[in-house]
Design a protein that fits this description.
There is one protein chain. The protein has 147 residues and is mostly beta strands. Helices cover 6% and strands 34% of the residues. It starts with a strand and ends in a 6-residue tail after the last strand.
Length: 147
Amino acid sequence: MSALNIFPTPSRLVPTSARLPFLNMRATCGFPSPAEDFMGEEQDLAELCIRNPPATFFAQAEGDSMRGFGIEAGDMLIIDRSIDAKHGDICLVLLDGGLTVKQLRMSKTSVALVSGHPTHPPIILGEEQELQVWGVVTWSFKKQLRR
């Protein structure tokens, strides 16, 4: 299972405002174009990424089990505790006393925690296992670009 580094006092880490310039066009990965002509109004990063600040915290991902879902070691995750987890959500869960990030898959007969890596098989929950969803991952930010 992937480990996580949960930062202390999460409510203090949520910024009240982080206004940044917004490029009022899509950033093409093809031929370059001059960007200064397309600068729009500022966007507030906290407003964009955090729906419920008192219920939101950050965690840093470790391990490679969620790579298929775009989450890699070192990525910063924004997790919202106020969202009711549903089938298909990427969640931070407490399973048998340990924290892990997995995709939640539910059916009428079973609950599974799915990784995004072929060497990490799904965890099918047994009746004796205790699962607690700590929150739903709403955003994942890369710590740095990979070269």
